[in-house]
Structures are given as C-alpha cells and as structure tokens.
Specification:
Layout: E1 6-12, H1 20-28, E2 33-39, E3 52-56, H2 59-67, H3 89-92, H4 94-97, E4 102-106, H5 121-126, E5 129-133, E6 136-140, H6 143-146, H7 160-165, H8 172-184, E7 191-192
Parallel strand pairs: 1-2, 1-4, 2-3, 5-7
Antiparallel strand pairs: 4-6, 5-6
Length: 195
C-alpha cells in the first residue's frame, strides 16, 4: 500500500476506441492508483475495475465547472480543447480530489504497465510534479500548484487568458506550462520532467 494517494483523471467525450477494455484492464492492474473518468458515455457494458471511478458528466457540466474559476468569456468548444484546461483539474475537480495527495491526467491510448515500479512513494515524497506530457502528468495536490496556471507565466508573452480565449488547441499542458512549472518548483521538492 502506498503512503501517497494518487488520482489520475481521464476526460472522454465521443466514441471510445475498440481497445478501451484493454485500457481498463491495465488500469485495474494498478490498484494503488485511482483512475477517475469524467464522461457522458454509458460504461454499463464494460468491466470496470474497483480502482476506476466513473463520474457521469456532460460536456456542458464540464463547462459550468470551468466557469467557476474563470471570470471571463472562455472558449471550450470540444473535448480536445479541454486538454488545455488540464492544469486546472486540481480546481475544476477539487471536490473529487479531496483526500488525494496527488492528482494527474492521462490519455486513453496508453496501456499501463506496473506504474508503481516508476512512481514510488520515495519519488512522490521528493517531487511536486512528475512528467510533462498529456499521456501522464502528476501534480502534488496543493493550492499553490492547483492555482499556478492562473498566474502570468514568467518569460511568456501570452497568459492563461489568451490560451482560454482562443478556439485553437495551444498545448498549454505540454508546451507552455511545464517549463514554467519546472522553474517554479525546482526549489524544495522540484519536478521530474520526462517526455
């Protein structure tokens, strides 16, 4: 049993890929991690492991949650654009993440091996952020980290408001934000940034 609790979030809207049962099986093989799926898909025909939690939520409900934290008119016109909002998951889904030491996001096209071999209690104790790409990124569940994306990013001419006001996918979670998080959290526990 891990000392640190980790919730990994997948949002999915549309038709699931035909290999999704394999994704579920591989997630279930990692019982020390909780996988949370936010979706409007009916999962009743799937074999959902105990550590995979399904939260039925329409895309309009997702937009309503986002509106609680952005006080301007934002663009969220499809599920792919919602990837730009991943750094806000600690805020958007805070009610679901209560009690977890870490939260993160994952993709549906990864078949998981033994995650615990790489993300150990020792690693989690040392770092505030693990990895940098959308298929797996993990953040320590603290207010400072959960709100970091809502501040002006040092060294960049664009802000989160620019990212959330355009309908283009900006790779905010993979390109812009990780480098700034790296510089911010290298003090103290720091961050591991791996592709």
């Amino acid at each position: 049993m891990n000392k640190h609790s980790v919730a990994l979030i997948l949002h999915y809207y549309g038709k699931l890929p035909n290999y999704f049962p394999l994704w579920l099986k591989s997630a279930g093989a990692n019982p020390n991690f909780t996988f949370m799926i936010f979706s409007d898909i009916d999962f009743s025909s799937y074999n959902v492991p105990a550590n995979v939690k399904i939260f039925p939520m329409t895309f309009d409900e997702i937009k309503r949650l986002v509106s609680l934290y952005l006080d301007f008119e934002f663009v969220l016109n499809n599920s792919y654009k919602f990837c730009d909002y991943r750094p806000l998951y600690g805020l958007i889904f805070h009610e679901y993440l209560e009690g977890y030491d870490f939260w993160g996001y994952v993709d549906s096209d990864v078949i998981w091996g033994d995650i615990g071999k790489f993300i150990t209690d020792d690693i989690l104790g040392k770092y505030d952020k693990l990895y940098r790409l959308g298929h797996l990124t993990i953040y320590r569940n603290t207010e400072e980290i959960n709100t970091f994306a809502l501040h002006k990013l040092p060294g960049w001419n664009i802000s989160y408001k620019d990212v959330y006001r355009t309908n283009m996918h900006m790779c905010f979670e993979e390109a812009l934000l990780p480098e700034n998080l790296f510089s911010k959290f290298t003090r103290g526990r720091g961050a591991i940034l791996l592709a």
